[in-house]
Amino acid sequence: MGNKPALSAQELEDLLNLEDFSPVYRRANQVRQEAVGDTVHLRALLEFSNVCRRNCAYCGLRAARTQVERYRMTPEEIVDTALAAHRAGYRTLVMQSGEDPWYTPELLGQIVREIKEKTDLAITLSCGEMPREDYAHLRACGADRYLLKHETADPALYAALHPDGTLEARLRCLRDLKELGYETGGGFMVGLPGQTVKTLAQDLLTLAAIPCDMAGMGPFLPHPDTPLRDAAPGSTERTKRCVALARLLLPKANLPATTALGVRSAGEKSDVFSCGANVVMLKVTPTRYKRKYEIYPAPLADTHIVEQRRTLEEQVRALGRVPC
Ligand code: 5AD
Ligand code: SF4
C-alpha cells in the first residue's frame, strides 16, 4: 500500500530516542509551513451521544461503567447545534459519539443530509467501527471525513485493551474509509502501559501506510474508574515527538493539537503548533451534555461557542498563525 515511507522503523525509533530533539522539531515546523502553510484549522466538535457498547480498557465511556449518566442528543438538537457552530464561523463539524447503535446508519445519514442541505459545513464523523456498507451509505449522504484512531499498532496490546475488537478489524475499517473517498483520520495514544518505542515507530508507520489524511496523537490519561486507573499518564514530550515525526512522514496531513495534550498542560498544547500541528478542535457540545462526555478527566470551559471561538482565534494569532 502507498509509497515507501520517508523514514524506516529503525530511523523512527532512533529519532524518538534522541537526547536533543530540537532539530527535528525545527524540521517538522518547516515541513508544516511549506506543505500546509500557516493556517490553523478550527474544528467544531459535537459529542452527540456518550452511549457506547464497547469496553476499551482506558475509556471513561466504556459500557461497563454504570455510573455514567448516558445521553443521546435528538436529531433536532444535533442539527441546531450544527447551525449554531456554522453561525459562529466554523467550516467543519466533527460529530463524535461512542459506538451507539441507537443512531442507525439511516438516522445518522438523515442528520448529515440535513446539515449539508442547510450549511456548507464539511462533516467529519467519529462514531467507531461499522460495516463497509454503512460507511458507504454515510458517504453518499454527504459525510466528508471520518476519524477512527487505530489506538496502538501492537496487535497483542490492542487485544489486551480492546475486549471487543482486533487491530485487524480496525485497520480494515480505515482502509474501507480511505477507499470510499473519505478524508481519513487515524491516530494513537502515547504512553499506553506496555507500549514501547518500537510500538510508536509502528504506530507512525501505520498512519503512513493507510495513508491517513489526518492523525490525532494524544497522551494516554488514566481515568480513575477504568481498569487502567493506576497506570502512569503518557509523556507530553513523547507525544510532541510523535506529532513532529507524523509531519515528516505525512507532510500534507492535518494534525491536531489534541485535547488530551492540553489536559496535561495548556502550554504544551500551544507549543505543539511549532512541532507540526495545524488543527485544533473546540467542543460545541451543549453544556448540559459536555460534562457527561468524560473519556478521561479534564477541566471544562463553560464559555459560549462564539466567545470561545474568538478566544481561540486570538490565541492562534498570538502564535503568529492564521485561524481559519
Ligand atoms: N486517555 C487518552 N485518550 C483517550 N481516548 C480514550 N480514552 C483515553 C484516555 N484514557 C482517546 C482515544 C479515542 C478518543 C475518542 O479518545 O484515542 O480514540
Ligand atoms: Fe467506546 Fe470509543 Fe470509549 Fe472505546 S474509546 S469505550 S469505542 S467511546
UniProtKB/TrEMBL annotation:
Pfam family, one: Radical_SAM
UniProt cross-references to Gene3D superfamilies, sorted A to Z: Aldolase class I
Cofactor note: Binds 1 [4Fe-4S] cluster. The cluster is coordinated with 3 cysteines and an exchangeable S-adenosyl-L-methionine.
Domain Radical SAM core positions: 38-252
Binding site for [4Fe-4S] cluster: C52, C56, C59
Cited SMART domains: BATS, Elp3
Domain of life of the native organism: Bacteria
Binding site for S-adenosyl-L-methionine: E151, R170, L221
Keyword S-adenosyl-L-methionine recorded: yes
Binding-site list for (3R)-3-methyl-D-ornithine: S126
InterPro entries in alphabetical order: Aldolase_TIM, BATS_dom, Elp3/MiaA/NifB-like_rSAM, FeFe-hyd_HydE_rSAM, HydE/PylB-like, rSAM, rSAM_sf
CC cofactor: [4Fe-4S] cluster; [2Fe-2S] cluster
Database matches in PROSITE patterns: RADICAL_SAM (PS51918)
Record keywords: 4Fe-4S, Iron, Iron-sulfur, Metal-binding, S-adenosyl-L-methionine
GO biological process: one example: sulfur compound biosynthetic process
Molecular function GO labels: 4 iron, 4 sulfur cluster binding; metal ion binding; transferase activity
Name assigned to this protein: [FeFe] hydrogenase H-cluster radical SAM maturase HydE
Recorded name of the encoding gene: hydE
